[in-house]
Amino acid sequence: MLHHMEWDSSDDGLEASMDAPSRLSESPQSKPSTITDISEHEFSCHCCYDILVNPTTLTCGHNFCRHCLALWWESSRKNECPECREKWEGFPKINILLRDATEKLFSEVVERRRAEIQANPKISRSLLAFQRFGDNLGRSRTNQHKGTGFFFSGVLTALCCVALLVLVFHWSSGVVEPHDLLISKPVSHWAPEEVVSWLEHLGPWAQLYREPFQQENVNGRLLLMLGDEELLKPPYSIENQAHRRAILAELDRVKALGAKPPQNLWEYKAINAGKSLFLLYALKRSPRLTLFYLYLFDYSETFLPFLHTCCPAITHIGQSMESSFLNAQLEPSWRQWAEFLVKYLLLPYQLIAEFAWDWLAVHYWTSRFIIVNAMLLSVLEGCALWRLWTRARIRSLPRKMWNHLWKTLSQGFAFALLWPFVPQFVCNCLFYWALYFSPIINIDLVVQQLMHPETQAL
């Protein structure tokens, strides 16, 4: 019996020992912390004191909301911690582990906070600016380690500069053709040979009347006295009325200018060096404002031929060249104005490309450079408008246009003041650089726009 009692007591002890862990686990003193004991305060940002949204960890170990860090950086422009002021290295990244844990524990709070952030346009602008800063920082570091690519880029830039200097020297020291002298020589001082050269420059149809002008030794003074009756009678005998009207129309332009009007790009540059340089840069940056400037201040000499070239009038089959020449001096029709205004508002660079296309026979390679450059500038303008549209910042377009207008006017005014003091060689360098080497720069800009689009916020 004693043995039996000892066995029972041992069984009770065994049961007690087996039940001990369960009772131990049920004791309130030894109960571990559960997931419900974790509060939002432990996952709060030290800037906004709210739940962390896209937590970003700095090198010092502190965590902040991504938008709070962007607002701090935009206001201070300092790469340092908002709490301990220790500078961070590189560009701060989102702590993915902490973000996933926060979203899993407090999903409803995080979603509410995320919706509030997305509805705030100021925060969206700050995040875009902060991300753009990080992208530029990464690209600059990449450029520092390009190695061979950076070396060849420098070599290409040096070769472009050398080519530009050779180009300017070639055109500066080149022999001026005889008809180029007429653009700067007063018409009253023209010799008979120069009058014949002016007549031949009107077109192939004018070759028919070269011999009478040579036989009569018509100089510049006599040319200014010719009228419709004199051209109809012998010895000139220009019986074709369209030919007489074309000669008289060009003669009126010569009388108004006092010299031969420029007929190509180089003649226009020789007479209007400052205006040609201004138009070359202004058409690139502000095509609409530049065309409006031509309409106001240079209507008959520049704007009217430009409009007739880009938006030609409807011509009949078999129309002669002299009739086309006369039509270019007339006021545009309402169809031409309508076509011009649509292209002016939507595709201003297409107008420039169409104008250059019409001059391919005169300026073969130069026209092609201008056409390529116009296409690249159209792509850049389209990318800028697309960014405004995708960021819902199209409302800021009027403000940007006003800032651009003010910037263009101030630069034009400064250009007009400094122009008399700029050496001609420097002007030639700027002219040929903008004409021939701008497409190379714009190609790089287009590649950057297409390969590195701006990162969207949130």
Automatic annotation (TrEMBL):
<keyword id="KW-0053">Apoptosis</keyword>
<feature type="transmembrane region" description="Helical">
    <location>
        <begin position="369"/>
        <end position="389"/>
    </location>
</feature>
<dbReference type="GO" id="GO:0005634">
    <property type="term" value="C:nucleus"/>
</dbReference>
<keyword id="KW-0812">Transmembrane</keyword>
<dbReference type="InterPro" id="IPR017907">
    <property type="entry name" value="Znf_RING_CS"/>
</dbReference>
<comment type="function">
    <text>Membrane-bound E3 ubiquitin ligase that plays a role in several processes including apoptosis regulation or reticulum endoplasmic stress. Has anti-apoptotic activity, both for apoptosis triggered via death-receptors and via mitochondrial factors. Contributes to the dynamic control of IRE1/ERN1 signaling during ER stress by inducing BAX inhibitor 1/TMBIM6 proteasomal degradation. Promotes the activation of TGF-beta signaling by mediating the 'Lys-63'-linked ubiquitination of TGFBR1 which is critical to activate the pathway.</text>
</comment>
<keyword id="KW-0808">Transferase</keyword>
<keyword id="KW-0256">Endoplasmic reticulum</keyword>
<feature type="transmembrane region" description="Helical">
    <location>
        <begin position="409"/>
        <end position="435"/>
    </location>
</feature>
<feature type="transmembrane region" description="Helical">
    <location>
        <begin position="149"/>
        <end position="171"/>
    </location>
</feature>
<comment type="subunit">
    <text>Interacts with CASP8, BCL2 and BCL2L1 through SAM domain and also with HIP1, IFT57, ESRRBL1 and BCAP31. Interacts with NGFR; this interaction inhibits NF-kappa-B and JNK-related signaling pathways.</text>
</comment>
<dbReference type="GO" id="GO:0005789">
    <property type="term" value="C:endoplasmic reticulum membrane"/>
</dbReference>
<dbReference type="InterPro" id="IPR001841">
    <property type="entry name" value="Znf_RING"/>
</dbReference>
<feature type="region of interest" description="Disordered">
    <location>
        <begin position="1"/>
        <end position="35"/>
    </location>
</feature>
<keyword id="KW-0325">Glycoprotein</keyword>
<keyword id="KW-0472">Membrane</keyword>
<dbReference type="Pfam" id="PF00097">
    <property type="entry name" value="zf-C3HC4"/>
</dbReference>
<dbReference type="InterPro" id="IPR013083">
    <property type="entry name" value="Znf_RING/FYVE/PHD"/>
</dbReference>
<dbReference type="InterPro" id="IPR018957">
    <property type="entry name" value="Znf_C3HC4_RING-type"/>
</dbReference>
<dbReference type="GO" id="GO:0008270">
    <property type="term" value="F:zinc ion binding"/>
</dbReference>
<dbReference type="GO" id="GO:0061630">
    <property type="term" value="F:ubiquitin protein ligase activity"/>
</dbReference>
<keyword id="KW-0863">Zinc-finger</keyword>
<dbReference type="GO" id="GO:0043161">
    <property type="term" value="P:proteasome-mediated ubiquitin-dependent protein catabolic process"/>
</dbReference>
<protein>
    <recommendedName>
        <fullName>Bifunctional apoptosis regulator</fullName>
        <ecNumber>2.3.2.27</ecNumber>
    </recommendedName>
</protein>
<dbReference type="GO" id="GO:0006915">
    <property type="term" value="P:apoptotic process"/>
</dbReference>
<dbReference type="Pfam" id="PF00536">
    <property type="entry name" value="SAM_1"/>
</dbReference>
<keyword id="KW-0479">Metal-binding</keyword>
<keyword id="KW-1133">Transmembrane helix</keyword>
<feature type="compositionally biased region" description="Polar residues">
    <location>
        <begin position="24"/>
        <end position="35"/>
    </location>
</feature>
<keyword id="KW-0862">Zinc</keyword>
<feature type="domain" description="SAM">
    <location>
        <begin position="190"/>
        <end position="257"/>
    </location>
</feature>
<feature type="domain" description="RING-type">
    <location>
        <begin position="45"/>
        <end position="85"/>
    </location>
</feature>
<keyword id="KW-0832">Ubl conjugation</keyword>
<dbReference type="InterPro" id="IPR001660">
    <property type="entry name" value="SAM"/>
</dbReference>
<dbReference type="InterPro" id="IPR013761">
    <property type="entry name" value="SAM/pointed_sf"/>
</dbReference>
